[in-house]
Amino acid sequence: MSMLRMAAVAEPFDRDLDGDFERIAKIIAAARAEGVRLLALPEACLGGYLADLNGAAEQPPALRVDGPEIARLTELAGDMVVCAGYCEADGDRRYNSVVCVGGGRVLGNHRKVHQPLREDASYASGDGFAAFDTPVGRIGMLICYDKAFPESARALALDGAQIVVCVSAWPGSRTGAPENLADDRWTRRFDLFDRARALENQVVWLSANQAGTFGSLRFVCSAKVVDPGGDVLATTGVVPGMAIADIDVTAALEAARRHMGHLRDRRPDTYGS
């Protein structure tokens, strides 16, 4: 057996980039002390998310994937594989992106494809999904609303992703919100998407989320690790923290797919375009 210890984080982040890096350094140090080899930090953990979704919010700082901030993240990660959300600068365009770093280099980068409400007033949209190889296995990455679309995770699974890392800034309900986030309908939806995407693709699912409040948004936390059968191995629940789980990824995928192989048993000729 080759066990992999992985962790997903629910913590608050804001526009104070130096403060964000201080928090990330502490999180990585705590994860390293626990023997974590794959760590998922939230969407927009470098510079914070949008303060509201009406297109009028102050913009997060835009960072180049080959710039000094991602180099700083890479240095902090060391030999750990770390996925972290940020606002990516590419020429005059800005993307809501997630980068994966480890072993002194950038391993992968994903630009959020699906944009809720007025997020498109702040970011350009990504145009695809691709898995990539890392020291801990083949990974695919998604951002928040991407996971509401089955095609997103399926594209990664068909590209050989064994682990899907989904980083989010997923808020609770904006209308009729209960006091307790555990009772919030958007918390339930967040958790349902995590479990369904893991199960239907028979992959390991690592889900990070923002915590606390930022502007008009209150985030549902609920960072978790889900196995290929859709069972939650670890979760922070609706509070900040780090969900840590050990899993033999290869063995778990083989066991899940041995009899009911959802990817193997597809009938794409019947589905239409």
Automatic annotation (TrEMBL):
Instruction: Please state every residue range assigned to the domain named CN hydrolase.
Output: 4-249
Q: Which SUPFAM superfamilies match?
A: Carbon-nitrogen hydrolase
Q: Which PROSITE patterns match?
A: CN_HYDROLASE
Does the keyword Hydrolase belong to this entry? yes
* Keyword annotations from UniProtKB, A to Z: Hydrolase
Q: Tell me any Pfam family this protein matches.
A: CN_hydrolase
GO MF entries: hydrolase activity, acting on carbon-nitrogen (but not peptide) bonds, in linear amides
Would I find Hydrolase among this entry's keywords? yes
- What is the name attached to this protein's record? Predicted amidohydrolase
Q: The organism's lineage?
A: Bacteria, Bacillati, Actinomycetota, Actinomycetes, Micromonosporales
